[in-house]
Amino acid sequence: MNERIIPRDLVASHLAVSTRALLRYEQLGLVQVTRDGPVEGYEPAQVRRLWSIMSFHRDLGVNLAGVQVILQLCDRMTELHQHLDHLANELRSILENEPEPGQSPGSSQEQSQTHG
């Protein structure tokens, strides 16, 4: 058995929810189940997602349609943050390789060789 998969019944027990509710969340596409041989369960990231679903639904009273919208927005924000991080890294790389104003492209190497 893959230790990264937490069985559905164990997750249900720890979150104090029925396995039927977890199956419903799977059907709605709110979480992804993973199968390893005969064991069906969740990876740790999906368990955290289930905890969020339970918090929104049970603790805050948000209906499942609202939970779905919240999760979609969170997923989209995560994608945008990753994209912005990628763009920032690209920009940083470009700026590090660009010569300073007033210098020719090879002049920084020439200066370090003449002063060294």
| Major beta-sheet overview | 3 strands, antiparallel
Q: Architecture, CATH level 2?
A: Orthogonal Bundle
From the spread of the alpha carbons, the general shape counts as elongated
The run of helices and strands is EHHEEHHH
Number of domains: 1
Q: How many beta-strand runs?
A: 3
Using the coordinates above, name the CATH class: Mainly Alpha
Mean of residue pLDDT values: 88
Strand content: 5-15%
**Could you estimate the helical fraction of the residues in percent?**
55-70%
Would you write up a description of this structure?
The chain has 116 residues and is mostly helical. The protein has one domain (6-97): Multidrug-efflux Transporter Regulator, Chain: A, Domain 2 (Orthogonal Bundle). It has helices spanning 8-15, 19-27, 44-59, 64-97, 107-115, and strands at 6-7, 34-36, 39-42. A 3-stranded antiparallel β-sheet has the order 1-3-2. Strand 2 and strand 3 (39-42) form a beta hairpin. The chain is elongated, with a radius of gyration of 25 Å. The mean pLDDT is 88.
What would a concise description of this structure say?
The chain has a single domain (6-97), classed as Multidrug-efflux Transporter Regulator, Chain: A, Domain 2.
